[in-house]
Write a structure and sequence with these properties.
Structural class: alpha+beta
Shape: globular
Mean pLDDT: 76
Number of strands: 16
Helix content: 25-40%
Number of helices: 11
Low-confidence stretches: 43-56, 298-307, 309-380
Radius of gyration: 27 Å
Number of domains: 3
Order of helices and strands: HHHEEHHEEEEEEEEEEEEEEHHHHHH
Length: 380
């Protein structure tokens, strides 16, 4: 559409776009008729790129975790990249990090890959892509798709944090995608090639000095890792991306040049000093942070904290009553039931006074009420 808009005179563009679509459709039908009688019509270069774009939008591609175009038009030669940006701190360990990343993935996928073999790229180059599509399943079992677009504000992603023994660890890590690439890796001793897709990222770190639980009514705050840290930049497998994430610049704090010097990985105006994580940007993201979505990783402490606040708002009770209800066995049991997927129906008491603000009376009424739901209500 953008390409066709450039062919118009910008006056009454809608009619001209429709005319172009009619012409394109007519030519395509003519080509199909010629193909049926055995006449092959060569596909123009622009049409070929459109075919690649249409394949990426094919519904069958939704069965894959991610989609990156197969085209190899934008070659990035490693030696030229480094020579064009001498002294760039973002590129200081670009090649060693890429070698380590590719070798680790290749050995994980194929244990027979020689451990001591060097990673050799075909033509010693990478192929850059402007976008990557990430497919995911929402909490209500629907398919969704995020588009990672390099050079725009739609370039932030979230991945799972490494597993540790700490149950209270923050479950996700955030990164800015600086580039989407694929490379053809030569298999040692053969002429075969292995296509490897990867993302070059700049990591963000969480600000642990700012409480951000639901009781504090704050969003999590993150900032770019200083370039002096050895892991400020790195590479990730696109398959590790959970979803795109919405990071809101902390405009109040302004920009800074302290985190990274002049670099292709930083805007000329500097980095935003802080970002806020938009955990309510859509319903699936909100459920992911609650930890009670189907297939999501549950986090009991944070889930309980958020639901406690929701109870106080939804019930319209005063502060004392909300605190009593959130600490009661009734609310805790409902939280446990949500985490393990127990389905049940709750029955309200007919003689319960809706205007009462006495928390103890509410709890005693719910415990003394006869129930027809069996074990679930017996636990209450």
């Amino acid at each position: 559409m953008k390409r066709r808009f450039g062919r118009t005179n910008k006056k009454d563009a809608d009619a001209q776009l429709v005319a172009q679509e009619v012409i394109s459709t007519t030519i395509r039908h003519m080509a199909d008729e010629l193909h049926e009688i055995g006449v092959d019509v060569p596909v123009p270069p622009q049409a070929a790129s459109q075919v690649v774009e249409d394949e990426a939008r094919d519904p069958s591609a939704a069965l894959q975790h991610h989609s990156i175009a197969a085209e190899q038009r934008n070659a990035v030669f490693l030696r030229q990249l480094l020579s064009d940006h001498p002294g760039d701190p973002a590129l200081s360990s670009f090649v060693p990090d890429l070698q380590a990343h590719l070798k680790a993935r290749l050995r994980m996928e194929d244990p027979s890959w020689p451990e001591t073999a060097l990673i050799t790229l075909d033509r010693d180059c990478l192929f850059a892509h402007a976008t990557a599509r990430i497919n995911f399943t929402t909490y209500d079992l629907r398919r969704g798709q995020d588009i990672i677009h390099i050079g725009t504000d739609k370039c932030f992603v979230m991945v799972n944090a490494p597993d540790t023994s700490d149950d209270n660890r923050y479950p996700w890590m955030y990164a800015q995608v600086l580039g989407v690439y694929h490379a053809n890796v030569l298999r040692p001793g053969t002429a075969s090639k292995v296509r490897m897709e990867f993302m070059w990222v700049r990591w963000l770190q969480r600000d642990t000095t700012l409480p951000h639980s639901a009781n504090h009514f704050r969003l999590p705050r993150v900032s770019f890792a200083p370039a002096t840290l050895p892991d400020a930049f790195g590479f990730i497998d696109p398959a590790a991306v959970l979803r795109a994430t919405h990071l809101i610049p902390g405009f109040h704090y302004g920009r800074t040049f302290a985190l990274l010097g002049p670099s292709i990985a930083r805007a000329a105006s500097g980095d935003w000093r802080y970002y806020y994580v938009g955990r309510f940007v859509d319903h699936d993201i909100a459920m992911r942070y609650l930890g009670i979505g189907i297939g999501h990783r549950g986090h009991r402490a944070r889930t309980t904290d958020v639901l406690d606040t929701a109870v106080s708002f939804a019930s319209g009770l005063d502060t004392a009553t909300a605190a009593a209800c959130s600490s009661s066995a009734t609310v805790r049991t409902h939280i446990d039931a949500a985490n393990v997927g127990i389905a049940g129906e709750s029955h309200s008491s007919a003689d319960q006074d809706e205007d009462s603000t006495d928390a103890e009376q509410l709890i005693s009424d719910s415990e003394s009420e006869p129930s027809s739901d069996g074990d679930f209500e017996d636990e209450l």
